[in-house]
Design a protein that fits this description.
alpha/beta, Spore Coat Polysaccharide Biosynthesis Protein SpsA, Chain A, 3 domains, ten-stranded mixed β-sheet, three-stranded antiparallel β-sheet, 14 helices, binds uridine 5'-triphosphate
Length: 482
């Protein structure tokens, strides 16, 4: 005899045309029934119905699509070496340092993705990424945060968004490694929300007879998850008003970058973003643009290639050159506003191969996309932000993601980019070494952020070494000699 909770959920799903979710209910054990009911209870049926109509089953051409009317490239703050105003950068850096020292800034990593392209078994943050020690991504960020704490004499909080799938493994990894030297009371994990996947007629897919095909609701889900988890309240009670947002797949990121934070806080921006000039027109980065007076990011797949190839007549630079590298500074109360009430972020449709079951309950592993997942993107908050600023950064100092198993944005390219960065620091300190024409050192080495995190800190630590180690394969500079 089903419980009243079961009866009312099954009725609600039946009314919504989603009765198939309970096709195998009678065959399940009591605990499996409970699990399925809990998953079903997570689903907002009216919201899903609206999404299915708008993004899946609507008449062809009825989906909102991307409005390119009146689009123009977004302005951005240029680096001093590319024509930016050096004194303004100095002022921004000073303002950022003051905010960091005052404890107003926390780090925020989105680590809830499924990492399917990389194909690594485990949370992506546990992926071994550094050239010699093979330190995991999480450890690289932890050491950058420790270095920033030492430099600015402050205590940094670190918020990490996980998914239902990788939460326990991520937390256990930090436990096993003593939180990489960070104070565990300032490392905060929370899970992001989930959304059901549907087939092309809008019917919710089952992953197995007793479970719904649920997947993380996209990095944009971070805004509502920050609110729901209590992270925003914790920030408020700690006097933190700014989150330094970055992705788990990018070990080059300056987790706490005073100049960027400074541009953000001193311009009164509610959400700011870093940009790099696109390396080539086809590069798969989102584009910072202005549409109807608002800052937006238009994905590479949504901006016609003719526009992506357009060049400025005088400089020859790409007109839509400002590429998004998914690094943002976000104001706490802006997040609260975005995560509540209507007018939140729009969902996007992603066609995927979704593991499911057939009518008999047998596993189906499709070879081609068989359905749709719904995802929120964090950059969709930009048009709602007051005074957003886009700030240029050097790609080589901030961006080399690990996305794919090989080829572009892979462990191999990221490893080479880390080595080139170390090479630049050696050169800046006047230390000769053998490198190829791209600046890639001809031997493996590794410099921990605790030894140096930029040219200046590296040179300082190096000068303090009582005995300089030989530049030989496998050189590791791991801790601060001061
Ligand atoms: P990606 O867009 O690269 O997605 O995420 P992914 O899920 O990690 O990888 P693929 O597409 O399956 O290969 C960019 C960043 O956003 C986070 C990821 O963890 C990564 O840091 N993310 C993505 C989330 O936190 N939650 C999501 O639902 C999606």
């Amino acid at each position: 005899m089903p419980s009243s909770r079961a009866t009312s959920l099954i009725e609600a799903f039946s009314r919504a045309g989603q009765r198939q979710v309970f096709s195998f209910f009678d065959r399940l054990s009591a605990s499996a029934q409970d699990r399925l009911l809990s998953e079903a209870a997570e689903i907002d049926l009216p919201e899903l119905d609206g999404l299915v109509r708008a993004l899946v089953t609507g008449a062809p051409g009825s989906s909102p699509g991307v409005d390119l009317e009146g689009l123009s490239p977004a302005p951005y703050v240029r680096l001093p070496e590319r024509g930016g105003d050096a004194p303004s950068w100095d002022a921004a850096r000073a303002a950022g340092e003051a905010a960091i020292r005052a404890g107003r800034v926390a780090a925020f990593t989105v680590a809830g993705g499924q990492g399917t392209r990389l194909g690594f078994d485990g949370p992506k943050g546990t992926f071994p990424v550094t050239p010699v020690r093979r330190k995991p991504l999480f450890q690289v960020f932890a050491e950058k945060l420790l270095a920033a704490e030492r430099r600015y004499g402050c205590r940094l909080h670190w918020f990490i968004m996980t998914s239902h799938q990788n939460h326990d493994a991520s937390v256990a990894f930090f436990e096993e490694h003593g939180h990489f030297g960070l104070d565990r009371s300032r490392v905060h994990f929370f899970r992001q929300g989930r959304m059901p996947a549907v087939d092309y007629s809008g019917r919710i897919l089952l992953e197995s007879p007793g479970s719904i095909a649920l997947s993380p609701d996209g990095h944009g889900g971070s805004l509502r998850a920050l609110d729901r988890s209590g992270a925003l309240d914790l920030m408020a009670s700690e006097g933190i008003d700014t989150l330094s947002y970055f992705q788990v797949d990018n070990p080059l990121v300056r987790c706490i970058d005073p100049a960027f934070i400074g541009w953000h806080v001193s311009s009164g921006s509610e959400m700011s973003s870093k940009m790099v000039p696109k390396a080539y027109p086809e590069e798969k980065l989102g584009h910072f643009c202005i549409r109807q007076g608002r800052l937006v990011v238009i994905e590479y797949s949504d901006l016609p290639m003719a526009l992506q190839r357009e060049r400025d007549a005088s400089s020859g630079a790409l007109r839509y050159e400002a590429g998004s590298i998914a690094i943002h500074a976000i104001d706490r109360e802006f997040i609260r506003r975005m995560s509540r009430g209507s007018g939140g972020l729009p969902f996007h449709r992603a066609d995927k191969k979704i593991a499911t079951v057939d009518a008999s309950g047998a596993d189906v592993r499709p070879a081609a996309p068989n359905g749709v997942k719904f995802e929120l993107f964090v950059f969709d908050a930009l048009p709602f932000a007051r005074g957003p600023v886009v700030v240029e950064t050097r790609r080589s100092d901030d961006f080399s993601p690990v996305k794919n198993a090989d080829g572009v944005d892979s462990p191999a390219t990221c490893r080479a980019d880390q080595l080139r960065q170390y090479g630049r620091w050696l050169s800046a300190a006047g230390i000769p070494f053998a490198a190829d024409p791209s600046g890639l050192p001809e031997f493996d080495l590794e410099i921990s952020p605790l030894f140096g995190y930029d040219e200046v800190s590296f040179a300082q630590s190096w000068s303090l070494l009582p005995q300089k180690p030989p530049l030989a394969p496998g050189l590791v500079l791991d801790s601060n000699p001061s």
